[in-house]
Amino acid sequence: MKILTSESQTQTLFKYLTSSVVPRPIALVSTRDKHGNVNLSPFSFFNVFSANPPILVFSPARRGRDNTTKHTYENLLEHKECVVNIVNFDIVEQMSLSSSEFAKGVNEFVKAGFTELESDHISVPRVKESPIQIECKVDQVIALGDQGGAGNLVLARVICMHIDDDILDSDKNIDPNLLKAVARLGQNYYSKAYGEALFQLNKPAQNVGIGFDALPKEVLNSKVLLASDLAQLASWPEMIDETEVNEYKLIELSELFLEHEDDAKALEIALHKKAKLLIEQKNIEQALMCVLAFNN
Amino acid sequence: MKILTSESQTQTLFKYLTSSVVPRPIALVSTRDKHGNVNLSPFSFFNVFSANPPILVFSPARRGRDNTTKHTYENLLEHKECVVNIVNFDIVEQMSLSSSEFAKGVNEFVKAGFTELESDHISVPRVKESPIQIECKVDQVIALGDQGGAGNLVLARVICMHIDDDILDSDKNIDPNLLKAVARLGQNYYSKAYGEALFQLNKPAQNVGIGFDALPKEVLNSKVLLASDLAQLASWPEMIDETEVNEYKLIELSELFLEHEDDAKALEIALHKKAKLLIEQKNIEQALMCVLAFNN
To answer: Which value does ipTM take for this structure?
Structure first.
């Protein structure tokens, strides 16, 4: 399917953009107006964008329906401070309730059952029930348009982060399984960023990998190894020299070579199967020697 | 734990910001320089920020280590087009490989085993293996600072979206279980936004909910109902009138009232347990009548 934006309605674009750029982290943002009336509302057009200076960006967009603006946006024009409260599974129902369109001046802390906690550096309260509360000063608000559906980039400079000790591991790192963050997808979907959903990938070495182009052709065309397997072989920082491959072949693969002496195709498959197993065990160097042994 | 940004090093801020604002969607961005050399690199400082105009924002930040800039950033100053390719589980290993710091001019499509596909409206190739490819023209690049760790907001206007038919359901909506999107957390963590991780919440009604402040005090202090249960009761659009509650009490709750005739505390707990069950069954109206019946 192809969607040309110049020929599409805002509603259609909204639907496909919000179900394509997923999962989106959720900012539960507290603000106040010039009279001190507090507001609380969630935004998933949100992320961190810089560490130095530390900048978060979120977008209280103009409503597609009638081009009205949100109270958060109006408040930020009057009072340039906010708290970005991180949303976890325990408070996701209350967060959802706070997104209802309560009348101007209504305090969503009260409506959604949240507790106001005084901030240290700004005059906007934080959400006690949120595991991470980030006090911010707003540097700039950039309007991306003036029609319904137009975003407003709020550039929020982080002044101070409050992190619940209960979500830290023994090294004072945030443990995603204790944080239990949730995120927004399209339609009515949310996702959990913990438990079964979590996995780890090693960061690529400072030394760059050898690349797919360094792998032999029959390895690239393997019926056993998937692209994700090949990617791990191609991440190895340097090509392994022939002598080393030969040594590995003699010690570890002689039985396999003997077994398939008369059938090169079967040997290739056997070597790739063994390599796949080694990749699963995160033994990339041996896996690479295993596939290279075929032509050695 | 409290982190004051004015007293913290960039590295520390980076660590806590990237493990707090989670999970972050991943843009695998293809660009080209003025000579036509292609580059491909992933960014998790990324989100959609507007539907009208349709705008994605991502940040190829200055390196914290040595304040050098990324090839993606340099290319975008020379040639203001890019493709944002969405990353799913099938290509996450290749995406990770493409994030290695290959030398300037090296084509990461080749190194990471991706296939270049010609774009329809711009002269930058898309990633064939990505389930959603978004052709963009870059409106603006906003530098958030000039030191190591400074973000650069790339405002990318969407021209055209290519969506693989295989990830659409029968209504032509994107099915998250077919898309299999992955996202970035802190440290080496990633998360899957499909399968067990998915859940749904009904969008709050256009009619706003009654709010926590409309619930009786003994319900707010319930030992049975959690804040997430109360949030669902408080989302009901209007208070239920006494006559209706009485009718429900007579028909559905008379046995419960009879059983606990002499023990108000036990009755309250029994009513809240029944309400909790009804909330789990998404029968919010009856759950609300159930807790209101106590004082009726």
So the answer is: 0.93
Distance CA B285, CA B232 (A): 10
For the entire predicted model, the pTM comes to 0.93
How do residues A204-234 score in pLDDT, each as one tens digit?
656 789 999 999 999 999 999 999 999 999 9
pLDDT in tens, B36-87: 999 999 999 999 999 999 999 999 999 988 999 999 999 999 999 999 999 9
Residue A6 burial (CB < 10 Å; 0-12/13-18/19+)? exposed
| A209/B197 Cβ within 8 A | no
Q: Which DSSP symbol is given to B2?
A: E
Contacts of B282 in chain A (CB under 8 A): none
Q: What is the CATH number of domain B5-195?
A: 2.30.110.10
**CB contact residues (below 8 A), chain B span 52-91, against chain A:** 52-57, 59, 61, 64, 86, 90-91
Give A258 to chain B, closest Cα distance, Å. 32
- Give the SS3 label for residue B199: strand
Domain borders along chain A are: 5-195, 212-295
CB contact under 8 A, A185 and B176: yes
**Nearest CA to A252 among A215, A212, A288, A209?**
A288
For residue B14, list chain A residues with Cβ-Cβ distance below 8 A.
51-52
Residue matched to tokens 């995120």: A183
C-alpha span between B136 and B28 (Å, rounded): 13
Structure tokens at A49: 């964008």
